[in-house]
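Project standup — Tuesday

K.O.: blocked on the structure for the chain from last sprint. Re-posting the sequence here as requested.
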Amino acid sequence: MHDPSQYSLLQRARALFLIALLACLGACSTIRFSYNHGDTLLYWWLDAYVDFEGAQSDWVKRDIRELFQWHRKTQLDDYAQLLGTFQRQLGGNPTQADLLADYRIIRTHTETLAMKAVPHMVDLARSLTPDQIEQMEERFKKKNDEYRRKFVSGSVDKRQEARFDKSMEQFKLWFGSFSSEQEKALRRASDARPLDSNVWLEERILRQRKILALARKIQQEKPSKEQTSVMITALLHEFFTRMDSPERKGFYDAYINTTSNYILSAIRIATPAQKAHAQQRMQGWIDDFKVLAKEAK
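H.V.: unblocked you, prediction finished:
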């Protein structure tokens, strides 16, 4: 629904979840290739934030490999089933309730993965040096500046267009090309949503500050593994329940409501041929997920 394209030591599991879903970002023929190289891609991504030193590289690669092995064995069959649900919904008339149920399933998988990764996060957090934490902070700032330039700065029309273009990349991936009339209708539906990129930026920065504060606390106080695990688990729980906090529940509820309605708009204007295109693409992903899961058994 929203692009959470930031890394943190406490969001490494979420990053892995996104890497695992590279299938949803490329052609069917690249799914297995992307997933089979996902551990390497994820390591490179993390290294850009932390700049691993010496032995860190070896055991971080091992941890990522172990997470992928667990993920392949336990999660990919569920992804195939979820895509099968998408196929059936497209064959009928999905409702907003259907989309919200799908979203809850995806969120549950993300939380499961995050908690599975906690022991690895503990090792990483306890190994970070002050210089690495500083580098992570600088990386956060750079990514925030990029986000600010693209989605927060400029005229309302420019920001609306940037958000619309981003969503259309996903719609075209699923449905193929759209007519000019369809794109105009989707643009109107997109513009009807609240333009809340500044709030998302505030949320990003808040999470980053909490992550950096915890990383520095662990580095300075050197708690035990058990104590570190409790602290990381607590922060993850805070992030996952942020949607229900009094100061943000209204915002998140409105966002999920308007986004699901926007997706429904795309489904409703899609032609039978476009829906068939989406179902065929999903079938390719389902087949590849099943093969990947079978290879792990």
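K.O.: great, moving the ticket to review. Residues 12-295 form one domain. Residues 197-221 form the longest helix (25 residues).
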